[in-house]
Structures are given as C-alpha cells and as structure tokens.
Amino acid sequence: MTSHFRSLQVYWTTCCRLQACLIFLLFFMASPTLFGDVYRIKKGDTLLIAVVGQPEYTHSVEVREDGRINYFGREFDVAGATVTTVNHLIRIFLVTDNHVTKPVVMVSLVLQKNGVFVGGAVKTPGRYVISPETDIDLYRAIALAGGMGENADRQGVQLIRKDTTETVETYDLSTNSPYRDIRLNINDLVFVMPLSVVEVQGQVQTPGKIFVRGAIGISHALARAGGPTQEADLTTVVKVEKNGKRSEFNLSEQFWKSPPNNQPPPTLSDGDVLFVPNVFKTEPIYVTGYIRNPGPQRVRGPLNLSQAVALGGGFDVSANRKEVIIHHQDGTTIEVPFTFNPAEGTHQQVLLYPGDILEIKKKFQINWSLVSTFTVIVISGVSVILQILQ
Predict the structure, then answer these.
(1) What pLDDT does residue 321 have?
(2) Which of 28, 49, 274, 367 lies most in the core, judged by the most C-beta atoms within 10 Å?
(3) Predicted structure pTM score
C-alpha cells in the first residue's frame, strides 16, 4: 500500500510540473502580443505615409485583399507587419530608388474612409483613401493605382462625379495630348476604358496581341501583324472565338481587299485568336503524361485543352483531371485548371499552338498501407508512454 501511495505522489508531482511548464510556455508565447508592438496591419486597413518636407510623397494607401499596398509603383507585403516595419520598408525604398536622400517617414493608421475609386484598365484598381484636405488631380489618381495597363484606352478615361449631379466626363490622356489640370473631389470615380485584345499567331511577321477598340476585320488584323509570311497558308486561316468556337476562312493572297459578292468581312472581337497555318507542313502538339495514347498530334491550328486530351485518347485512370501543365515553345511553363465544357469557365479557352507540350500530371492518391503503419506506430508509442506514467 505504501509503495502504491508513493507512486501516486510521484505521478501527481510530475503532472504539476508539466502543468507549470505549460503555463510558462503559454505565457512566453503571449508575451510578444501583450508587451510588444501590439497592432498588426490587416487587410482593409488604411495607412497614411507621410514624408516630412516632401508633400509629393505623402498620401494614403489601402491594404488590398492580397495583403499588399502600392506606393509609387512598388508593391509592399504589409499584412501582419507592424507600423514600424512598414516605416522602415518605405524609408529604404525612397533611398534605394533615389527618390529622397534622407527621408523622415511617418506611417500611421487612418480611420476616415474618404477617398477616390480607380478602376478599369489600371494595374492595381481599388479605393485609395485621401484626406478631405488633399488636392489631387486625375493623373495622380491613376498613378496611385499603379498607372494604366497595356490594354488601356488612353482616349477614353472617364471621371464620374459623385456629387448631386453624378455627371460623367470623358478625357483624352494620350501621350500627344496636352496636360489638363483636372481636379478630383472626395468619392469621385475614375474609370479607364479597356481596349479589346485579340491575338494573331502562326505564319505572320509579328505574331502577338493587338489592342483595338471594339472589333477588327481579319484583313486589318493581318496587316497589323505585319502581313503573312511566305510560308503562310491563307486558304485555311483558323479563327478561335472566346467561347471556343472554331471557324476557317479562305483568304486570297490580296487579303487587304474586300470579299466578293458584298459579303461582310469576317471580324475579330475581344478574346478571339487568329491562326495562320504553314502551307508546307502540319506541326505537332505533344500530349504527354497520364494520357492513354501519349505522343505528338499533328494539327494545322491551335487546339483547346479538351480537343488535345481527346486526340490523346482521353485521361488515364491515374490522371489529375483538375489541373494540367502547358510548356510553350518560348520556354515558359504554366499550370492551368482543366474543364471539360468551355461553357463552364474561361480557363478552357487556353489554347495550345503547334510546338507546345501538354503534360497531364498524376492525381494525388493516399497510400493507405503507409497510413495504417504510421497509425500502428503512434498507437504503440502512446501505449508505452501511458505504461511509463503508470
């Protein structure tokens, strides 16, 4: 009996020591929050970045949903950081980029929500908080949003006044237009109209994207791409629309002329792709990985993901049917979601061009034998610990 009580006393003493260690551990884990720089910046916060003696570098920024802010074209990841940390980051940026030699930076939280909204074809659209006393013009508001995107229509910048009238003003901010002093008020809305983006690929002089207003005729698109090469096959020009629909056109060598019989000329709209094949050869698109019949598939134009998988015989039983990898001819590699039906989403509109490689990955599978072995080891270890404590 005495030995039994002695073992219980040892067990109780051990438990008390473990409990004390746990309490001290929790205390030290909580001490940075209790006694350190308490507040951590979170999404949706507004920071006032003030540079003493440099009013042009003083303005407010809002922490976006990705936890980042944009300050004069530079992105900073601030979510979870302290105000002191952000102050240090801004000061280093101003010095290293030769903005200010010895800046005195003060970063603080802003509680008021007055500001302007900048949207459309800008790099970082969103709401940018400014104080009611801030004097801001249209150019600076766009600069706060990172500047215009590559698809921006500089001749179609709209300013929506959010006063009682809610008037809409349109301005031309192209590089050859003179500067205009356009002042903004609190809660005004700036919207940069986006241009339509079409692609011309294949046997043309300068393949790539073309930015247009609205739609563009196929002949004009070919001309904008520098015209066809000597190896171009103008009898089977392929048009792939944004919704995945494919069409073929037989264009004469004088593609800039209007079609006969007063037929309306074919056009390209936003998201469409025009592909000019090679007249001498059919080039392969490679389908590899967990596919039933991997290998090259010779085609005369671009394919969407479903068509490429179908030519490869369909997915293998071990294939990952959610995401695929595309290796382009220029050396770039992207991982995109896969959908069977183009109507289910825009991801299906990713196109494969001759020379590209579609790689089908293996799906994640649970190794149940390894899981069961690990479970047995854990249970055995717990049993041994309980026996030692007893």
Answers:
(1) 80
(2) 274
(3) 0.51
